[in-house]
Amino acid sequence: MLFDTHCHLNSDELYPKYKEIIKEAKRNNVEVIIVPGYDLLSSQRVSEIVKEKNIYGAIGLQPEEIDKTDVNSLFDLFNTIKSNNKIVAIGEIGLDYYWEKDESKKQIQREIFIKQIKIANELKLPIIVHSRDALQDTLDILRAHRPIMGGVMHCYSGPKEMVPEFIKLGMYISLGGPVTFKNARVPKEVATSIDINYLLIETDSPYLAPHPLRGTENNPSNVRLVAEEIANLRNMKLEDLEAVTFKNATKLFGINYEN
Ligand code: NI
Hints:
This protein is α/β, with parallel strands linked by helices. 39% of the residues lie in helices and 16% in strands.
């Protein structure tokens, strides 16, 4: 059984066909999916999508979307979380300095990230963190504003040496399509060296389709290719890798999985 911990069924690409994608995923043994929000519309769509069995969601404002989003309306959505037990995290939130070079806007990213960590702590929910070209600042913020229910470094692209620093703060590490890419030395090192009790897997659909589907529209069924690559790298059986990452995800997100 597989658990895709990060899948944008709420994206413009996948939302029109999310019900079929979920059916296809279940046929492929992908039993549970987490759908993170990234802006207002995608976060609103989450409450609809999580009506499906074994589909859970998160609400959050992703750093790249800050300028394009009605931030107050999105923050109002956090008030709806208490009445929806299928919203299991705040995310995705974080820092993206790859797309943002302006120092004052980076400061706004940091402030909004911290605000959302505080909301997660008030609601006693884990966080889903997006971090691109900003790993040290992300770590510094998590140290200063510790997520009390932990969280996940989604599609982690940092070096293996920093992994234990995040784990110390209650964070899990999630690997996606890039670990399957032929020249992806760094994520492969993370896959082989990480304490497996802190490893999650994801697709980040519709983006980052794994090898050999790289460049195509990704979907949650492809999380199997991520699992197979990590199992190969670690010389372990696929079903053992599936079992431990499934258990890790249900623990982090507080999910009681029922068939
Ligand atoms: Ni995402």
